[in-house]
What we know:
By secondary structure, the chain is α/β, with parallel strands linked by helices. It has five helices and seven strands.
Amino acid sequence: MLNDYAHSTIVTGADAENAKVICIFVHGRTQSPADMMQQVITHLDAADTRFILPKSAGDAWYNARAVDPLTVEARSELGASLDIVAEVIGLATQQSPNAKLVLAGFSQGSCLLAEYILLNGKWDGAACLFTGCRVGVEADNLPASDLTDMPIYISCGDKDPWIPAASYNDLGLTFIECGVRLKTEVFPGRDHSVTASECAALNGMLNNLAANIPVFDVAKNGGMG
């Protein structure tokens, strides 16, 4: 386990003792925590949230495309990155044991977190995945866990160059099958980026969790759109 966060990890927002929510935000391929700070975190107003933005070991969390079949190398890289996520979560929750946890990410970061969530199951908090899908294909026997009533927001562009709409929809259907309380948004013509609307969705989730009110008002298994 990590004794402290890696030097490339950004930690900002509420201090560990006073945080009501921890948000671990995972960057995409060829991006960095600083990119996510600029594109997302600086647009949020969530004073009770402690933000932790880890960095991949290289330029990507894994080198393969998410929509390709998993090779031995891809499985190894994915596993190593999932271990990093688990270590960061473990340290964050140890430092703020009473805080609720939000896992959030963009692009490859969302794909990585989708696998973490479906491998490990639900927790006290929520997830917010911008432009993600499963890593691998159905023949890879991808994991799935009980996520009953877990609030999760997912979003994507209808013609995103990295995440096909069909793959994004498959992730949503998988979450529904696992019992997620799901909210989705698809943005026509949106480029590969995070919009103000998506930032607002994350901001609302964080502040609702901090206030101990429902993350969003959507009927279970009724949020696909």
